[in-house]
Design a protein that fits this description.
The complex is a heterodimer of chains A (273) and B (358).
Chain A: E1 9-10, E2 16-17, E3 20-31, E4 34-45, E5 49-53, H1 60-67, E6 75-80, E7 83-84, H2 90-96, E8 98-100, H3 113-120, H4 129-134, H5 138-156, H6 172-185, E9 190-194, H7 202-219, E10 222-226, H8 230-236, E11 239-244, E12 247-252, H9 254-258, H10 261-268
Parallel strand pairs in A: 5-10, 5-11, 8-9, 9-10
Antiparallel strand pairs in A: 1-2, 3-4, 3-6, 6-7, 11-12
Chain B: H1 13-16, H2 23-43, H3 46-72, H4 80-97, H5 103-122, H6 130-150, E1 163-164, E2 169-170, E3 173-174, H7 182-205, H8 207-217, H9 219-225, H10 229-256, E4 258-259, H11 261-264, H12 267-280, H13 285-309, H14 314-335, H15 339-353
Antiparallel strand pairs in B: 1-4, 2-3
Classes of the chains: A alpha/beta (273), B mainly alpha (358).
Chain lengths: 273, 358
Amino acid sequence: MNDMSQGNYTTADGRKIGNTLMEMKNITLRFGGVVAIKDISFDIHEGEIRAIIGPNGAGKSSMLNVVSGFYHPQEGEVWFRGEKRPPMKPYEVARLGIARTFQNIALFEGMSVLDNIMTGRLNHMKSSMFSQMLWKGKAEREEVENREVVEKVIDFLEIQAIRKTPVGRLPYGLKKRVELARALAAEPKLLLLDEPMAGMNVEEKEDMSRFILDVNDEFGTTIALIEHDMGVVMDLSDRVVVMDYGKKIGDGTPDEVRNNQDVIDAYLGVSHD
Amino acid sequence: MFYREAGDFSTTYPQDSQTFPIKFDRYRYYVVLVIAFGIIPFIINDYWANAVFVPFLIYAIAAIGLNILTGYCGQVSLGTGAFMAVGAYSCYKLMTAFPEVSMLIHIPLAGLITAGVVTIFGLPSLRIKGFYLAVATLAAQFFLVWLFNKVGWFYNYSASGQISAPQRDVFGIIVTGPNTAAWAKYMICLVFVTICAVLARNLTRGTTGRTWMAIRDMDIAAEIIGVNPLKAKLTAFAISGFFVGIAGALFFSVYLGAAEVGESFGIDKSFLVLFMIIIGGLGSIFGSFAGAAFMVLLPVFLKNVFVGWLGWPTDLAAHLQFIISGGLIIIFLIMEPHGLAQLWRVAKEKLRLWPFPH
C-alpha cells in the first residue's frame, strides 16, 4: 500500500483510488459559544469510501452539514474538485454534484416512491415551465430520459415493486433505501450518508452494506458516511476519520484507527486515577 | 367488473406517466368531455347556467389555482378573494381601455396581471410559514379590497363605485353583458376550465409539480436535493395567481356582470375557495372540481328540496342550508380529512377488485 495522504493509492481489495475530490482545511464551526467543530482537516479521494465516526455529540453530523452547505463554518476552507468553494446555499452545493441522505429519513411523504426519486433528478431537468405546461417538446423528452435513469436506480436497489406506493406507507428499512435511491438518482460525484444503517436489523444492514459497496463499485461514486456500527464501518470503509468533542483524534485505515490509543480512550473511556 | 387494470400494460414511459393510465378512466374522461362540449350547451337554460354550471366552472378554476399554491406547494393563502378581484378589475380595465380586443386575450392577460400581483404578495413566504403566512395573505386580502374601493381609477370613477361588464363578443357570439345567452356563458367558462385544468395537470405531474410537492413535504430536504426554495415558492404563487385571476375575470365579466369589490370579492370568498379545496382534496386537480361542485351544488340542492318540494319559507330554508352545509363540512373533515379526491381513490381501489375481493 502506498502513502495514502498523497493521493492515488490502491486499496487492499485492489480498487484504484484517485486524486483528492474534496478537502476540508482547518474547519471551525461555532454555534454561539459552543464549538461544534474545532480546526478539523481531512480529505476525501475519488472512488473512496470514507467514514466519519465518533461518540454522540462529537460533531459528525455538523461536519456533514458543512460539506452539504447547510452550515457555514466560521473558519476554514472547503475545497471541491481542486477549487475553493465559496459559501453556498445547499441547493447550489447539490448542483456541484454532492448528494446526501439524512439521519432521520427526510423523504417527501406525500409523494410516490417514483416521484421522490424523480425529484432527485431535478438538477438534470432544464425544460422551461412553458414547455412543461404543454407537456410537449423538451419537457416530454426530458421526462422520459430521466425516467430511464431513475428506473436503472430502482432496478439497482431492488425496489421495483413499490414504485407507485406513497412513501408514507413504507416500512422504515425501505424508506432508507428509497432515500438512498433519491440521492443516487442525482448521479452525484460525492455521496454523503448520515447513519445509513441506524435502526436496522442485521439483515437490513447487510443489504444496505451491499448496496453501498455496489454503488461505489459500479458507479465509482465517492462515499462519505457516518455510522455507529463499528463492524460495518471497519468492513466498508477505506479510511476513517475519528472525531471526539469536535476535534479530530484519528485518521487512517480501519486497522490504524483501531489501534490508535486516543480512539480507544474516546470510545472506552480512560481511568483518571 | 369494468374498472380493470389487468391487461392494460404500459410499455413506454410516456404511457405510464399519462394523466389517465387506466383505459377505463381515459374513456370516462372522453365521455365527460363529449357531454360537456357536445350535449350540455344544447339543452342548457338560464337557470342551470346561472345557478349551477357557470359558478361551478369558475370556482373550479379558482380552486385549481389555490390548490396549486396550498395543496401542491403547501403555502396557505387567505387572499384568494382579493386575488380574484385583481383579475376582475384588470379584466374590467382592459375591456374598457381596449374594446376592440377579444375577450380571449383579455382574460388570460388579466390572469397574467394577477400572477404578477400575487407573486409580490408571495414574497413574505420566503421568510414565514404556516399560520403566519396565512395572516400575511390576509393582509393582502384587506389591502387590495381597500385599494379597489379607494382609488377611483380602478372602477373608472363610476358614481356607484361598481364595475360593470360592457357587452363584448367572441367570434360574433356575445359572451358578456346582459344580452348573453346561457350557452355562450357556459361555453366560454368551459373552454377556460378545460385549458386551465390541462395546463395545471401537466405542470403538477412534471418537474415543477415535484418541486412544489418537495417544498410542501419537507422544505429542508428539498433544498439539499437542489430545489431553489425562492424559485419554487414564487412560481407556485405566480401560477396560482394566473388561474385565480382568470377565475376572477370570468366571475366578474361572465357570471356577475357587475361587481362591487367588498361584496363580491370579500374574505368570505377566500374561505369559500379554501373550503372547496379542503373538501375536494388538497393536492388533486380532480379534488378541485369535486370541491367546487360540492360547495356550489349543495346550497342549490338544499334550496330546491326545502323550498321547492317541502314548501318551507325561504328564510328558514336559507338558515337551515347554512347549518347543514357547515355540519357536512365538519363531518367531512372528521371522516375523510383528505377530501373527496381520496374517497374517489379508495372507491377506485375497491372497484379494481370488485366483485371478487380476494
